[in-house]
Each structure stands twice: as C-alpha cells, then as structure tokens.
Amino acid sequence: MADLVRDVMTPGVVAVRPDASLVEAAQLMRAQDIGDVLVADDRRVVGVLTDRDIALRAVADGADPLTVSALAVCTLDPVAIGPDAAVSAAADLMREHAVRRLPVVEDGRAVGMVSLGDLAPIQEPGSALADISGARPDA
C-alpha cells in the first residue's frame, strides 16, 4: 500500500512562466493532456493555474486570453506538500483547503503534483472516483 505522497504523485513538473499568456498555458495543457499547470519562476512555485481558472476567471469575463497572463488568474501561493508526507496528510490538506491538487515540493523546488484522483484509490478504493481514476483515459 502506498503510504507516502511520492508513491502516488505524478512526478515531474509542467509549468509556465508567470508572464505566459493563457493561450500558451491552455495549449500546454492540451499537449500534455492535463487540467492544470504550475506557474513558476525559476522553479519556485508561484501559483497553480487550472483549465477552470482560465474559463471562469478570464474567458467568462470577456478577457482576451492572448493578453492575460497566467499570473493574473492563477491561485497564488498554493498549499503544497512534501514527497515524504503521508498520503493521509495530503488528503487532510485537500479537505481543509478545498483543493483538488497539491504541488509536491522538495527543497524549495516543485517535483510533482498529487491530485484527488491520485488519492482516491488509496483512501476510498471502492468509490466512484477511485474507479474513474483507475480507468484508461479516452483516446
């Protein structure tokens, strides 16, 4: 059984610069088939930008995604966790802060991301989210 965040996290970091446009960020999300990217300055996490942030904090307000920066609509100073933290600690942080994903940071550098979907098969193996998380993605 996976006890540590490092055992369940998605390793590696997909990030954009704070001044990247929302179009750049969305194109990266599409290319990587992910719903979020870190906003990072020299590997220091500044924020987390999700596809939902782009839709609700920019596009829905009529903002031009070519001219709006990732920094302008991301969640700043996100709650993070270390790779050697317990999986239960990650679940507690997500619950406490009402977030679905946490950057995994070691020695001040982002090393991965852990999501609610990563935790579901461990925390609640019979749940619908665990089943969905374990399924192969659509082609």
From TrEMBL:
List the top taxonomic levels of the source: Bacteria, Bacillati, Actinomycetota, Actinomycetes, Kitasatosporales
Q: What is this protein called?
A: CBS domain-containing protein
